[in-house]
Amino acid sequence: MKALLRGILAGLLVWPCLLLADPESAVETGVNEEVQTLKQQVLELNRDLFMLEEELLFPSNTQVSVFVSMNVGEFFQLDSVQVKLDGKEVANYLYTRRELDALIRGGVQRIHIGNLRSGEHELVAFFTGKGPQGRDYKRGATTRIKKGLGPKYVELKIVDQTKNFQPEFDIKEW
């Protein structure tokens, strides 16, 4: 009989706690869902603001973007790239091991975005790194780009040439 009374008493003490736990967990779940919704809205707003800022700072009719890409990377290990437009340095980038791995796997990096007026412009790129047989290597590539209406895309491409075991540096306009 004592055991039965103890069981009933314990049940009576635990039951109110269980009743109180349900509303709290429901409120907590509702708050968590609201927080997640707010986080998603903030991320979307941030993306929209970034796109608007880029559109305002770099209108498409004056926009120029410069990209770096690599093909294989056996004969040249890139350390840094320096880009000059019309004699003015617009980018100077030092690469990490992870960034190089991404470029070798086919990644493309936007190294510069800016504004240019219509007309002809000189683009010079300097590539620094280790060449064949581990020697220090600094190479430049120059081209004249013609900027018209609309955005201009330029790719600085590093390609291994197996016929002469040397890297080749190419500039391609899109």
Task: Describe the protein.
The chain is an alpha+beta fold. It has 2 domains: 57 residues; 111 residues, Immunoglobulin-like (Sandwich), CATH 2.60.40. The protein contains 2 helices and 8 strands; from the N terminus they run H-E-E-E-H-E-E-E-E-E. The strands form 2 sheets. It has a 4-stranded mixed β-sheet with strand order 4-1-7-8. A hairpin with a 2-residue loop joins strand 2 and strand 3.
List the helices and strands and how they pair.
Layout: H1 2-57, E1 63-71, E2 77-85, E3 88-94, H2 97-104, E4 108-115, E5 119-130, E6 136-147, E7 152-161, E8 166-173
Parallel strand pairs: 1-7
Antiparallel strand pairs: 1-4, 2-3, 2-5, 5-6, 7-8
What's the CATH topology name of the largest domain? Answer: Immunoglobulin-like
The coarse overall form would be: flat
Mean pLDDT: 84
Beta-strand residue fraction? 35-45%
Task: Give the gist of this structure.
By secondary structure, the chain is α+β, with helices and mostly antiparallel strands. The chain has helices at 2-57, 97-104, and strands at residues 63-71, 77-85, 88-94, 108-115, 119-130, 136-147, 152-161, 166-173.
